[in-house]
Structures are given as structure tokens and as C-alpha cells.
Design a protein that fits this description.
Length: 500
């Protein structure tokens, strides 16, 4: 049997290796394999953040024809492209980016002008670095939570699996708010479990339950689709947390108060309290797509296919269920969470907490079913990844229980942790297999031009050429998010027709 000093030494070595691995992957993803932002909504939120850093609160240089027509319809007068206001994106992530840009001087576009041979925009790395930071904070919070629920072994393996999850690292390069949301969601779960635990110990659960709700309110202000998770939390608290109904009512009032300014902003600039954000429903329920709707000047030409509403929602739910392994980042233990629902955990707080997780996931899946989500790419509506850490922990706990009951394992102490090794190796496969190719492509892109992201994004061409256009002119583009971000010019999404 190993002595206590040997155990301490082994623990220290494991922690050192973990942090070495963490730093290596961070540098690799921010520098080695990074080719710039690769999603349109990420670029759009980036240019919004820069406008906020300049003092143009909720301003945007990317203009959707539909949002423009909604603004004209509301104000019943000519609306100017300059000082156009965002009514599409939730405000919190652009605000966070605005603060970061203000700190690093990102509000001065001329100070960040690209060279002719430079392919990666420096501010793209700033955004990716902030995403990585929130991701690492989420790993730390998840580790503390899971150690509290189960033990340090499951907490450590979960943290390692998060670090090895290719889906998480992929989202750090998008400019999307998912990593910031993961940080907020991890905090919310930590406080929620504290509330359930306090109730079991005959203490007041009010404060931690409210803190969990506040984190989810902030997450809703980061991505409007997260309101479904918030609703699930309010219902759970109203039914389970004593005094029943109190926590749910308070969180509802706080949520409405926090969003009141932005609701009024949307009404003022679009005539709808949801702004143009509700048009994302065209992803799943229209005759075409959200892009077709957004490029149309007027709602009358973009009818919803209401007759097939139920069919499309059910089909979207089916896709989520059949592709749940992909949605959960190909982490082998995460889908096992659903099997753990059948196990009778002895600790009451552990047993009750999983029903909260299930409730939040069901509501999130319902929201994604209505508004659409795709497992094939880095979808901006992807909320399943928020549940990967906690579902992985429950999955590991269930696998450990089953594993320990095997006769072969009981007789051989060297096999007691073999299931952890198998889960880690299988889950790390996508990251390990993709990294060499990513580094190779990024190296060629940085030195010899290489292939940009599709549709062809050439940041240096946009930054050095279109920036010569006078600032009061308007660029009409099929990639207005990139034009607004890299060229820092007002950019109108090219309408569907010449007439429009």
C-alpha cells in the first residue's frame, strides 16, 4: 500500500501535469492553431463591443434590411444607417467585449490596422483569449462543485475531460458567448446545489437559490434563448425550494427588472419587445431560413409555415435526441447521465440535484427545438454544451458504481480506476485527431496565405482596402458582419432583390 507521502507526491505530480497540459492547450488554441474568428454572429458581436467601447451603447454597424424596416415602421419617419441600434443580439456579451476593448485600446481601429502580410486580426486573439479565460474559470468552478457533490477523483476526471473536449476549444475561436455562458451556468449550478444542500441541513436556501437565479438572469442577457433555462429554474424553485413559490416569484421580478431597459430599447427601435431577435424562429419554422427573412425589407414577404409547426418542432427534438452524443461534445460519460436517473443515490441532495439538471435541460431542449439548432457546426443556439460538465460528473459516478460491483474489479486493485482511463482516451479522441491538422492549416495560413475560413474571409483585405472608404459611406455586402468588424464601416446585408 502506498504511504501518505507517496499519495501526496502522486497528487502533486498529477496537478502539475494538468496545469502544464492546460497551458499548452491554451497557447496552442490561441496562437498555434488560431486563424481568427470563424462565425458571423461572433464577428457581429465583436463590432458591437467596439461600438460600446466608443460610447455608442447598443450601436451596430451591421444592418439587416428587416431590422431597418422595423425601425422605420416604428418611428414612422426616415431612419439613418448611421447610429443604427442593435435589436437582435442579447446585450451582455457585447458589453463584456466593450469593457475588454476599452482596456486594451480596441476602440481605436487605426491602432490595430493589419499589415499586408498579416492574416490574423490581433483583436480576434483578444476575443479568443477572453473566451479561453471564461472557459478555464468554468473548469475551476465545475471542479469545486463536483468535488462537493461526489469526490475529488470524479471532480478531477471531469475537469480533465472538459480540458480535452474539442467542442469547448472550438467555441473559443468563434467569438460567440458560449464560454461566458458556461462560466455563468457553472456558477448558477454551484449556488443551486448549495441551496438544495442547505435545505437538507435545515438551513435557509433562499440566498444561494437567488444567487443561482441571478446568474441565470445574466445568462439570459447574454443569449436570449437561455430564458428557457431560466424558466425551468423558476418552476423548479417554485415547486421544490421552500418556502415554495417565494424564490420563483423573486427571481421572476428580478429578471423582468434586469431586462426592462433592453425591452424598452427594443420597443423603441423596432416596435417589438423581442426586437428583431424573434426572427431567429425562421431558422426552424419558415419556408426558407433566417437569412432569407433578415435580408427582406418587410415582414409581409416572409410568412411563417405555421401549419407544419408541430412537425418541425418534433423533428428538431428528434434530431437533438439522436445526435445527443455530438451535442454533448463526444464526451463518453455525459450521455450516461440519463442512465444515472434510474440509480437511487443515498445522499438526498445528490438525488434531488439531478432532477434540477434534467428540468433545465428539458426546457433548454424545448427552446432549441422551436428556434433550431444544428449538431454539424458551431451553432450559436447550441446550449447542450452547458450541461457537459455536470452530466459528465453524474455519468462518471454511475459508471464507477457499476464498475465497482464487478467481481474482477473487486479482486484487482489495479483495475479500480481503469474505467476512468478508458473514458478519458475515448473522449479525447476528437481533440487529439484534429489538432495536428489544425496546426498544419494555421501554419500555412500564417506564412503563405493558405485558405481562409469559408465564406472566404480575408481580414487583411477588408481591413486595409475597405477602410479607405469614407466613414459616412455604406458598404453593401454578402458578409456584412466581417465588413463591419474588420473594415470598421457601416455594412448593409445585401437585400434579396434589386427592388428592395
Amino acid at each position: 500500500m502506498p504511504t501518505d507521502s507517496q499519495k501526496d507526491s502522486a497528487l502533486l505530480i498529477r496537478r502539475i501535469l494538468f496545469f502544464v497540459f492546460l497551458i499548452s492547450l491554451t497557447l496552442l488554441n490561441v496562437i498555434g492553431s488560431f486563424r481568427g474568428l470563424n462565425t458571423e454572429r461572433g464577428m457581429e458581436q465583436a463590432q458591437m463591443g467596439r461600438e460600446i467601447a466608443r460610447g455608442n451603447f447598443l450601436g451596430t454597424k451591421m444592418i439587416r434590411p428587416l431590422a431597418f424596416s422595423m425601425a422605420e415602421g416604428k418611428e414612422q419617419k426616415d431612419v439613418f444607417f448611421k447610429d443604427h441600434k442593435n435589436t437582435y443580439h442579447a446585450p451582455l456579451h457585447p458589453i463584456v467585449l466593450g469593457v475588454i476593448f476599452k482596456i486594451v485600446g480596441g476602440d481605436d481601429a487605426e491602432a490595430w490596422t493589419m499589415g499586408l502580410n498579416e492574416n490574423v486580426y490581433a483583436l480576434d486573439r483578444v476575443i479568443a483569449s477572453s473566451s479561453v479565460l471564461f472557459f478555464l474559470l468554468a473548469i475551476g468552478i465545475s471542479y469545486l462543485l463536483i468535488c462537493r457533490i461526489f469526490d475529488a477523483k470524479i471532480g478531477g476526471v471531469t475537469a480533465l475531460l472538459m480540458l480535452l473536449c474539442n467542442l469547448f476549444w472550438s467555441f473559443t475561436s468563434t467569438g460567440l458567448p458560449q464560454m461566458f455562458m458556461l462560466f455563468l451556468f457553472s456558477l448558477a449550478l454551484y449556488f443551486a446545489y448549495s441551496a438544495i444542500e442547505a435545505e437538507q441541513e435545515s438551513k435557509s436556501p433562499l440566498l444561494p437559490a437567488l444567487l443561482g437565479g441571478v446568474c441565470l438572469i445574466l445568462m439570459t442577457l447574454t443569449h436570449w434563448l437561455a430564458v428557457w433555462i431560466l424558466v425551468g429554474y423558476i418552476i423548479y424553485c417554485a415547486v421544490v425550494i421552500k418556502p415554495r413559490g417565494t424564490v420563483g416569484i423573486i427571481i421572476t421580478v428580478l429578471g423582468l427588472a434586469a431586462s426592462a431597459y433592453f425591452i424598452n430599447h427594443n420597443i423603441k427601435h423596432s416596435g417589438s419587445f423581442l426586437g428583431s431577435a424573434y426572427m431567429t424562429i425562421y431558422n426552424n419554422l419558415s419556408f426558407g431560413s433566417e437569412e432569407i427573412a433578415m435580408r427582406t425589407y418587410g415582414l409581409e414577404d416572409t410568412p411563417l409555415d405555421v401549419k407544419r409547426l408541430v412537425f418541425r418542432i418534433l423533428n428538431s427534438l428528434l434530431v437533438q435526441i439522436t445526435d445527443i452524443f455530438k451535442f454533448l461534445g463526444a464526451v463518453v460519460a455525459a450521455p450516461v447521465f440519463f442512465l444515472s436517473l434510474m440509480h437511487a443515490f443515498k445522499k438526498v441532495s445528490i438525488a434531488k440535484f439531478r432532477w434540477l439538471i434534467l428540468t433545465l435541460w428539458v426546457f433548454a431542449a424545448a427552446g432549441m427545438a422551436i428556434y433550431g439548432v444544428n449538431s454539424a457546426g458551431l451553432d450559436s443556439n447550441q446550449l447542450h454544451l452547458l450541461f457537459i460538465p455536470i452530466m459528465t460528473a453524474y455519468g462518471l459516478a454511475f459508471i464507477s458504481i457499476v464498475w465497482s460491483k464487478l467481481d474482477l474489479i473487486a479482486k484487482n486493485q489495479w483495475m479500480r480506476n481503469a474505467h476512468f482511463v478508458v473514458v478519458i482516451l475515448l473522449s479525447a479522441g476528437p481533440l487529439i485527431l484534429s489538432l495536428p491538422r489544425q496546426v498544419q492549416v494555421a501554419a500555412s495560413y500564417g506564412t503563405s496565405g493558405g485558405n481562409p475560413y469559408w465564406p472566404p474571409y480575408k481580414p487583411n483585405a477588408l481591413n486595409t482596402t475597405l477602410s479607405l472608404i469614407p466613414e459616412d459611406n455604406i458598404v453593401v455586402s454578402d458578409q456584412p458582419w466581417a465588413t463591419a468588424w474588420y473594415a470598421d464601416r457601416i455594412s448593409l446585408w445585401i437585400p434579396r432583390s434589386i427592388k428592395e
